[in-house]
Amino acid sequence: MPNPRAAMLVIGDEILSGRTRDANMHHLANTLTGIGIDLKEVRVVSDDADAITSAVRALSDSYDYVFTSGGIGPTHDDITADCVAAALDAHIDIRDDARTILQAHYDRSGQELNTARLRMARIPDGATLIDNPISSAPGFKLGNVHVMAGIPKIFCAMVESVVATLQGGKPLLSRTLPVMRGEGDIAGPLGTFAEKYTDLSVGSYPFQKDGMYGSNLVVRGQDASQLDTAMAELSAMFAE
Amino acid sequence: MPNPRAAMLVIGDEILSGRTRDANMHHLANTLTGIGIDLKEVRVVSDDADAITSAVRALSDSYDYVFTSGGIGPTHDDITADCVAAALDAHIDIRDDARTILQAHYDRSGQELNTARLRMARIPDGATLIDNPISSAPGFKLGNVHVMAGIPKIFCAMVESVVATLQGGKPLLSRTLPVMRGEGDIAGPLGTFAEKYTDLSVGSYPFQKDGMYGSNLVVRGQDASQLDTAMAELSAMFAE
């Protein structure tokens, strides 16, 4: 059975303007790879309701799992929850379970749960809350869409909270053979090798070291013994 | 007149599997912001012909400029050029101008321009070559799509090569006011402020410093004097 397919939606003007360098994509990619879920597409959109809503709808329709990052704080530009609700035709309002979590958090810290902070209790009907052990304000899962915070520390904690609820497949195993030859020298036999092992994904990533060209040949697949066989053949092909 | 709108397409299994952390998006975002082109969307897709072709088509139809990164080397998984040609209904084959550039490069380095390396001379009819001062193999521009290498050093050099050909608008100016208060405390007045200055984009980015919560309030716009006025008002609002 093929692995489940996932997509990610990163939301935020600050990424697209270059102000902030996204870190969440790389973290999610590694986490999903490790549990046998194939991340097949990532989109980054601005804090624009139409852009977010149409991306959520497109990705939710096309993939088994969708993960969003960003736009769930208390300020006016935090519109992700409302957009996800609109995309999936769900009603959204302040929900008591989320309000209770926030109230307890702000009681502990002696701050007021004001109107702005109550925005973070806006959760669509039918959604399951995602635990936020860092700053309490929860994410949520609606349909196949997991809505999480953009701040990397909170995003990672929320991913940790949802991992156990995901149905992964076989983890993708990866083997790397560094070869001190340029890609152009090895591309011919490497292509023939890739055609032979259609169950495996074969990639080549060039590098430079001490002024010499080299290539990291990366073979990925789900079957460890098939990978071992393939790697032995690859090593023999490119033995100096 | 509004600024031109751009999209980026990052191509590569290695980004989606978490093997490699993309660096090109952040570089392109900063470059475009600096010349008044608004990057509105980024997509990351795998080395899959259908995924690449349909993303190129969708982005080329929706934006003024499209920039791609990755998949133009000599190996079997380098299929970007053929996919861009297919997406824009152009014929593609080895082109003499690109072959001449590669021949000169490999003559200099004493390597053979073999079948694999000739793959890098596959350029669609009607495309303009993009100079690659690092490793010679050119990128190209077809319609509004700029096809560039994935290796960050070469990607940056190619971006440098194309910047002069782009028609930018007014650069987006950005001012930041750090406030040592949590987002929830300032979200109310900040929202009112954002509604007043509809020409400006107003964002809030939380941070923690010495155990205290703070927010970077970022205001972006094209008119320096309007920005100055707005920032003065913002500073007065949040003066301690």
Describe this structure as you would to a colleague:
2 copies of one chain form a homodimer. With 240 residues, the first copy, chain A, is an alpha/beta fold. Chain A has 2 domains: 5-163, Molybdenum Cofactor Biosythetic Enzyme, Chain A (3-Layer(aba) Sandwich), CATH 3.40.980; 173-237, Alpha-Beta Plaits (2-Layer Sandwich). In chain A, 40% of the residues lie in helices and 26% in strands. Chain A contains 9 helices and 11 strands. Chain A has helices at residues 13-16, 24-34, 49-62, 80-87, 96-109, 115-118, 152-163, 183-196, 224-237; strands at 5-11, 38-45, 65-69, 92-94, 122-124, 128-130, 139-142, 145-148, 173-179, 201-209, 212-221. In chain A, β10 (201-209) and β11 (212-221) form a beta hairpin. In chain A, α2 packs parallel to α7 (152-163) and α3 (49-62) crosses α4. The radius of gyration of chain A is 22 Å and the shape is elongated. In chain A, 45% of the residues are buried. At the A-B interface, α1, α2, β2, α6 and α8 of A face α1, α2, β2, α6 and α8 of B.
